[in-house]
């Protein structure tokens, strides 16, 4: 019963206010999901899939799936990519598909500044008629909503071999999916996202990488994620992060081969929901198509 009440409250908040862009624990290696200028940063064709299931134990809790693929072109100053995202919370599904273009300015072999844009669409499928409510005749829940809206985004990304910084607005359009009442209004805000990180070489085998993500939504909230990771022989990464003082992430990543990387993150909430919230789980798989071998190619990648 408590789970039902909590998820209803979560759903109503979602309907009445906004659908915010998901934030991932492993944002360092899923950069295209938050910044179009990240395209081509791996210097080869790179594909990344990520699945996140949030707040297990709560019926209808959010879950997100993303797939990103990007690559520099023969003219290495230009990179292109594609990002597909599915967000689900209870009876609401949101889909987005974006094409991405980035122009990269190379200062040295390992130092680049990139400017990126993305364009695509967002699709909302709100199946109100499937909601389990006390009054099945409530007019608010009689009609489903299915809508398409355009979306545009932009970003800038600077990286060297050992550090990066990025600034992006992945959702420029203030899309509103509206049926005439506050309860039936879903707004997509345009967050401003700032990221950065640095790799400190402790010794020949161990690296220490702190990083941070700050997300700001006007007249709404500020979200931050402070992360620290240790790498061992550039093969195994372990780390932890703190989110807005109410959640802690534990994560590990393994460079299985020069091409294949696997990551897992567990999020534990440290608020009143932790009694019934079994935590969030995030799995990432990334593959780099290393053909033909390229002179100066950085492997492994730190972000």
Structure description:
- The chain contains one helix and 17 strands.
- By secondary structure, it is mainly beta.
- The chain has one domain: Porin (Beta Barrel), CATH 2.40.160.
- The chain has a 14-stranded antiparallel β-barrel with strand order 1-2-3-4-5-6-7-10-12-13-14-15-16-17. A two-stranded antiparallel ribbon has the order 8-9.
- A hairpin with a 5-residue loop joins strand 2 (63-72) and strand 3.
- The longest helix is centred in the first third of the chain and has 15 residues, at 2-16.
- Residues 1-18 have low confidence and may be disordered.
Question: What's the arrangement of secondary structure elements?
Answer:
Layout (H helix, E strand, L loop, with lengths): L1 H15 L28 E9 L9 E10 L5 E12 L2 E17 L2 E16 L18 E15 L3 E7 L6 E2 L8 E2 L4 E7 L1 E2 L4 E12 L3 E12 L3 E8 L3 E9 L4 E10 L10 E10 L14
């Amino acid at each position: 019963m408590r789970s039902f009440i909590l998820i209803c409250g979560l759903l109503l908040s979602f309907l009445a206010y906004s659908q915010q862009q998901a934030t991932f624990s492993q944002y360092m290696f899923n950069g295209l999901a938050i910044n179009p200028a990240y395209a081509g940063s791996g210097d080869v064709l790179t594909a990344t899939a990520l699945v996140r299931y949030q707040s297990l134990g709560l019926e209808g809790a959010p879950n997100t799936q993303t797939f990103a693929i990007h690559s520099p072109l023969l003219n290495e100053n230009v990179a292109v990519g594609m990002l597909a995202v599915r967000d689900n919370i209870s009876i609401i599904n949101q889909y987005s598909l974006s094409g991405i273009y980035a122009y990269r300015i190379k200062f040295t072999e390992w130092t680049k500044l990139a400017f990126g844009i993305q364009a695509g669409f967002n699709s909302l499928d709100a199946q109100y008629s499937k909601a389990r409510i006390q009054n099945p005749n409530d007019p608010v829940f009689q009609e489903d909503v299915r809508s398409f809206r355009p979306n545009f985004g932009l970003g800038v990304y600077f990286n060297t071999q050992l550090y990066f910084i990025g600034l992006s607005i992945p959702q420029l359009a203030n899309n509103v999916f509206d049926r005439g009442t506050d309860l039936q209004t879903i707004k997509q805000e345009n967050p401003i996202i700032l990221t950065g990180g640095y790799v400190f070489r402790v010794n020949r085998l161990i690296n220490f990488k702190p990083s941070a993500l700050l997300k700001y939504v006007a007249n709404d909230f500020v979200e931050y994620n402070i992360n620290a990771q240790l790498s061992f022989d550039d093969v195994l990464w372990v780390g932890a992060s703190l989110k807005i003082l109410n959640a802690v992430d534990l994560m590990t990543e393994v460079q299985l081969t020069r091409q294949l990387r696997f990551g897992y993150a567990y999020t534990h909430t440290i608020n009143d929901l932790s009694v019934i919230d079994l935590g969030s789980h995030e799995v990432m798989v990334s593959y780099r198509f290393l053909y033909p071998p390229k002179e100066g190619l950085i492997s492994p990648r730190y972000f």
